[in-house]
Amino acid sequence: MKSGIRDKAQGVLHEMKGKVKEVTGKLTDNSKLEAEGKAEKMAGKAQGKVGEVKRDLGE
């Protein structure tokens, strides 16, 4: 698998995991878990964007 496609896929996975953590944190009133989820979701979005750029550059 090309690097850009792999980064994009991993970014989507991290976004989904982050969303689950964020929602779980809200439901359980666990602000630490909610913050971890938001951070992981943001990191996943960034990784996805890196993957898009790599794909556009042909890597």
Polypeptide structure, described:
InterPro entries: CsbD, YjbJ_sf. The chain is mostly helical. It has one domain (3-51). The protein has two helices and no strands. It has helices at 3-27, 31-57. Helix 1 (3-27) packs antiparallel against helix 2 (31-57). The longest helix has 27 residues, at 31-57. The chain is elongated and about 45 Å long. The mean pLDDT is 92.
Task: Give structural attributes.
elongated; 2 helices; 59 residues; 88% helix
Instruction: Output mean pLDDT.
Output: 92
Approximately how much beta-strand content do the residues carry?
under 5%
The oligomeric state is single chain
Structure class: mainly alpha
Give the N-terminus to C-terminus distance in angstroms.
10 Å
Number of helices: 2
SSE pattern, N- to C-terminal = HH
- The tally of structural domains comes to 1
Poorly predicted runs of 5 or more residues: none
Largest sheet: none
Number of strands: 0
Query: What is the molecular shape?
Result: elongated
Alpha carbon gyration radius: 13 Å
Helix content: over 70%
InterPro entries: CsbD, YjbJ_sf
Domain CsbD-like: 7-54
Region (Disordered): 31-59
Pfam families: CsbD (PF05532)
